[in-house]
Design brief:
By secondary structure, this protein is an alpha/beta fold. It has one domain: 4-Layer Sandwich (Metallo-beta-lactamase, Chain A). The chain has helices at about 45-55, 70-75, 80-85, 95-100, 105-110, 180-190, 210-215; strands at about 1-5, 10-20, 25-30, 35-40, 60-65, 90, 120, 130, 135-140, 150-155, 160, 165, 170, 200, 210. The strands form 3 sheets. Strands 1-2-3-4-5-6-7 form a 7-stranded mixed beta sheet, covered by helices on one side. Strands 8-9-10-11-14-15 form a 6-stranded mixed beta sheet. Strands 12-13 form a two-stranded antiparallel sheet. The protein is globular. The model has no long low-confidence stretch (mean pLDDT about 90).
Amino acid sequence: MENVENKGVTLGVQRFVVNDFGECTYLLYGEGGEGILIDAGFLYDEEWEQFIDFVEKRRVTISLLLNTHGHIDHVCGVGRVLERWKVPFAMHSADVPLLLQGPQFGGAYARSVKGDLRPSMLLENDPKFTFAGHPMEIIRTPGHTQGGCCFYLPEENVLFSGDTLFEGSIGRTDLPGGDFTQLMASIRDKLFALPGDCSVLPGHGEQTTIAKEQRENPFFS
């Protein structure tokens, strides 16, 4: 768990590195205590307890659960979140089948997918919304999965890139629904259109910027 450097004056961003895949779950919270959780990947009890301790100490209440895509390492904490907070759960409809495949992974991952986890909000129906007075844009980035999305805060100039773009790399395309050509186009045409100093917070690994990836990422440089 660590604070993520961001340019927002009134928004906080906390990163939780969780589960066996080192997935990055992000908590975005405003001054009034409203919180959005992005890619809830809490698998083990100690990870969940650390998160609960954080939100309770800061009096944060989760108001929305967002997912960049439906792979098991990004959704294995969804059941815990929805059990505690009866909030909207949003992702793209194209990735709902991935969300429901959790039991095939066995063990703790299978047990984490319980109840009806179908999203109550489909991102294709609401491309923009406001959080704590700050606009957030949904950027469709298919390629890693067919329903992949990134979330951009234009006022803070921060992008949550999921498994689309990483520091020095890009998302895998060898899994069902992956498409290398599509992923490259998503990054070039959509993400690289953002300001160069935009902070990129990926689904795995360390923070980067758009300019750094344009300049140094071996898939593009």
